[in-house]
Predict the structure.
Amino acid sequence: MAKRELSSTLKNLKLPDCGYTLIVVVGIKDPLRPGVKEAVDICLAAGITVRMVTGDNINTARVIAKECGILTEGRLAIKGPVFRAKSDAEKRELAPRIQENRWLVLQDKSSPTGKLKLVEHLRGLSEVVAVTGDGTNDALALHESDIGFAMGIAGTEVAKEQANVIVLDDDFATIVKVAKWGRAVYINIQKFVQFQLTVNIVALMINSVSACITGLFNRLLY
């Protein structure tokens, strides 16, 4: 905010370009939701890589990513147009950096193509990709991903139709709970299959041995 004394009348007012006195500088910050950083830390500890795709300015994206623990030392942020402009050969050169979790922030001004290309490229690296989104421009990425999470409150109907899971409270921490329950179910299925295989193999071996012994005794007796 700045001020300057004007001698002109209001009717013929033409604002000058210089000569102002600075009064105050005001900044607006959108704070992180409580629990987001803890949820990101849990994901990283569980082996889940968190990548952020945002339409904010690249500098704003870096600051937010650092606050929530996504962008740490040695990891990169890249603009969507730069990513889309690269050839397939250049993307293949970037593949190791993406796979090593060094490329974690993509700044793309609401471009569905950039998000879709990112999902397709990660799936091409044999990654299991989950996408969260709430806008119409997220629909392609939600559809192409292995697991799509749409926001239940702020999400559009198009995004919800393309998603596999709808997060009712629009909270990233809820997605962590979904991952916990999903892994618990997966581990239980593994244990069940292991138990069934063990029991069936042991039963088959016992039946086979019993049949062989019974046949041998029958031949000896008769």
